[in-house]
Amino acid sequence: MAMTAKQAKAVAERYAKAVELVEAGKVFPLYGEPDRYVVVNGQGQAYLVDHISGECTCPDSQLRCPKLGIVCKHAMAVELYVERQQATAGERPPQPQAEPEPEAEPARLHRIEVDLMEEEQARRLLEYLF
Ligand SMILES: [Zn+2]
């Protein structure tokens, strides 16, 4: 899987632009479509990128990239964006890992508290009425 000089140059050009797109906040996740992203270019035009296939709706992706055997800058931007999102997620303490173990006990206590409160209210109501 050697890369030709032509491919390397084509990737380098697109990579620099992809970094700019990510830095400028031009990559957006598409609601309800976990693997699809919208990338907005400098002219305000939006392209739809499939993160799995690397396909993009831009002309570069349709015409030049298939011949070169590379992906467009938008697909690269999405790749960088996802990578950064994952890196950011990794920095946070691993809270989702903390499994709820003695869940039953607090839940039961809470239930007792509610019952006591209701009992107390009922008692006060009875006192008030009689
Ligand atoms: Zn594209």
Describe the model.
By secondary structure, the chain is α+β, with helices and mostly antiparallel strands. It has 2 domains: 5-91, no CATH class; 102-129. Helices cover 57% and strands 13% of the residues. The chain contains 4 helices and 3 strands; from the N terminus they run αβββααα. It has helices at 5-23, 59-68, 73-91, 104-129; strands at residues 27-30, 33-40, 46-50. The protein has a 3-stranded antiparallel sheet with strand order 1-2-3. β2 (33-40) and β3 form a beta hairpin. α1 (5-23) crosses α3 (73-91). The protein is elongated. It starts with a helix and ends with a helix. The relative contact order is 0.11. Residues 47, 56, 58, 60-61, 72, 74-75 line the site of zinc ion. Zinc ion binds next to α2 and α3.
Layout of helices and strands, plus pairs?
Elements: H1 5-23, E1 27-30, E2 33-40, E3 46-50, H2 59-68, H3 73-91, H4 104-129
Antiparallel strand pairs: 1-2, 2-3
Helix pairs in contact: 1-3
The structure holds zinc ion.
Pfam families: SWIM
Keywords: Metal-binding, Zinc, Zinc-finger
GO molecular function: zinc ion binding
Beta strand % = 5-15%
Structural class: alpha+beta
Q: Counting H and I runs of at least 4 residues, what is the number of helices? A: 4
Oligomeric state of this protein: single chain
> Which stretches are poorly predicted, pLDDT < 50 over at least 5 residues?
none
Order of helices and strands: HEEEHHH
